[in-house]
Design goal:
Blueprint (H helix, E strand, L loop, with lengths): L2 H9 L7 E6 L3 H7 L16 E3 L34 E2 L5 E10 L3 E8 L21 E4 L8 E7 L7 E10 L4 E10 L1
Parallel strand pairs: 3-9
Antiparallel strand pairs: 1-4, 2-9, 4-7, 5-6, 5-8, 8-9
InterPro entries: Cellulose/chitin-bd_N, GlcNAc_Chitin_IntDeg, Ig_E-set
Protein name: Chitin-binding protein
Subcellular location: Secreted
């Protein structure tokens, strides 16, 4: 092994090898993969790669770069597009199932689902202040490895109307990372 390769292996941190995205309802990344949303950049080929630091909302991607996981190559996901991302119709206060496709499942701490507050600005980049402070669904996985297709059911908060954004967060158990997916919905 050359000295340059040995040095590179010391500098580049190992990744979890876990990847996944929400596909019901479709996330921005999934809409890009399907070609429903255009001008998406490389996320159209990598909807499963929106990986950033875990610990949301105390830690994680910076405000304004939450939908991209803080990754510059996926910055198109942070662009609110004037509130014109494709949406999925939901019913406020109703039960809903959220599904992920995990291309590389990994030991999992939890899945969490946050939603924007009433009155949030759908034409601005997502910030923590725009979200209800607590997730409306939390599924603890205790470090177990989920299957490739995983679903979680829960009740969508009542009192929501119009356009909202759901942030789905998949916390990996044995790394410092999580996967982030933004889902545009309309009540």
């Amino acid at each position: 092994m050359s000295l340059a390769l040995m040095a590179l292996s010391v500098v580049v941190p190992a990744t979890a090898g876990a990847h996944g995205y929400t596909n019901n309802p479709n996330s921005r990344a999934q809409f890009c993969k399907l070609g429903t949303a255009k001008n998406c950049g490389p996320i159209q080929w990598e909807p499963q790669s929106v990986e950033g630091p875990k610990g949301f909302p105390a830690r994680g991607p910076a405000d304004g770069s939450i939908c991209s996981g803080g990754l510059g190559q996926f910055a198109q996901l942070d662009d609110p597009r004037g509130g014109s991302w494709p949406t999925t119709k939901l019913t406020s206060g109703a039960s809903r199932t959220f599904s992920w496709w995990l291309t590389a499942p990994h030991a999992t701490t939890s899945f969490k689902y946050f939603i924007t507050r009433n009155g949030w600005n759908s034409t601005a980049k997502l910030t923590r202040a725009a979200l209800d402070p607590s997730p409306f669904i939390t599924v603890n996985n205790g470090g177990a490895r989920p299957p490739n297709a995983v679903s979680h059911s829960g009740t969508v908060p009542g009192g929501k109307s119009g356009r909202h954004l759901i942030l789905a967060v998949w916390d990996i158990a044995d790394t410092g990372n999580a996967f982030y997916q933004c889902i545009d919905v309309n009540f």
